[in-house]
Amino acid sequence: MFAKLLKYNFKDTKRIGIPILICLLGITVLGCVDLGVMISYNKGGTDGSVLSAIFNMLLMLGMMLVVLSLIFAVLVMLLFICVNFYKNLVSDEGYLTFTLPVKADDILLSKVVNGIIWLAIVVISVFISACALIMSASYFSGGNAFLMFDEIGRFFGILFEEYKASYVIVTIIMAILAIVVYAISNLLLYYMAIFMGSVVARKNKVLAAIGLVYGFNIAYGIVQNIAFFVFAASVFNSAVPALSYVNIFLAIIIVCSILFSVLFWCLTKYMMEKKLNLA
Asked: Torsions phi, psi of 201, nearest 5?
């Protein structure tokens, strides 16, 4: 049943996910064109006229809009995932969802997996778009379009020279794991807040959910910062390799994210099973 739920959620989210990806492609193309025009126009110097200044300002404004659009794409995807969760489980549609012969664990897991998959797709697409813009800027400036990748390769080359290969690989794996579990914990936090909003508020469930998401997010960040300073302070005072600082930081993120994910999961499941309020 989990597979069927995941397939349904994936198809449902695809309605907004595919348009976002298409928009990202278009934004990236426009951004590269904007960069090409701006760099080429200013390469030989401008005549200093008002029209030239206005034209440059419009080109820079265009690039600012491109960068903001890349950030906005991730936020729109996250917002849709949360709204879809609310619509499927907390609104009137929840009557249909909770009459299905499925466990609360399966419903929640399908929502989490679907959300993480689509967020990963959009974030990776935004990263590719950013890389394309950086490569375009380097190319139109007369440099090596692949300079960014050369610098990344040089950076990892230095790491592998300074530290054992196994140590660097472990750090990379920990970094990827930290990103994934942190994203899962935050998504579960939003789901828990949405459900809690429906429990504590008979009316204005949306406003209650938004307020709880904001409040819990701040509290979650504070707790993580406290945990980092408490557990890492003693180690940072000793003579340890620089990369160990990174590993300690990543380990704290992973442990805290896993613990909070379990907490958020249990609370959300409890509310789904015992405190359901669709009125």
From this structure: -125, 120
Q: Is 34 helix (H, G, I), strand (E, B) or coil?
A: helix
H or E stretch at 37 = helix 2-43
Contact partners, residue 6, CB within 8 Å, separation at least 6 = 110, 113, 114
Whole-structure pTM value: 0.84
Q: Output b/e per residue, 189-205; b: 16+ Cβ within 10 A.
A: bbbbbbbbbbbebeeeb
What is the rounded average pLDDT of the residues 159-164?
78
Question: Given pLDDT bands bounded at 50, 70 and 90, which one contains residue 276?
Answer: low
Check if the beta carbon of residue 145 is closer than 8 Å to that of residue 135. Answer: yes
Please calculate the CA angle 165-171-176 and round it to the nearest 5 degrees.
130
The Cα–Cα gap between 279 and 223 comes to: 34
Helix, strand, coil fractions of the chain, as percent rounded to 5: 85, 0, 15
Q: Is the per-residue pLDDT at 22 higher than 90?
A: yes
**Residue bearing tokens 């012969």:** 101
Tell me the C-alpha distance between 68 and 56, whole Å.
Answer: 18
pLDDT of residue 114: 93
What's the first-to-final CA gap in the chain, in angstroms?
27
- The whole-angstrom separation of Cα 13 and Cα 115 is 9
Backbone φ, ψ for residue 128 (5° rounding): -65, -40
- Contacts of 215-219 with C-beta under 8 Å, sequence gap 24+, read 216/189, 216/192, 217/186, 217/189
The per-residue pLDDT for range 31-50, each reduced to its tens digit, is 998 888 888 777 766 666 77
For residue 27 the two structure tokens come to 């934004």
| 94 vs 190: CA distance, rounded Å | 17
Q: What is the pLDDT of residue 271?
A: 84
| pLDDT higher than threshold 60 for residue 242 | yes
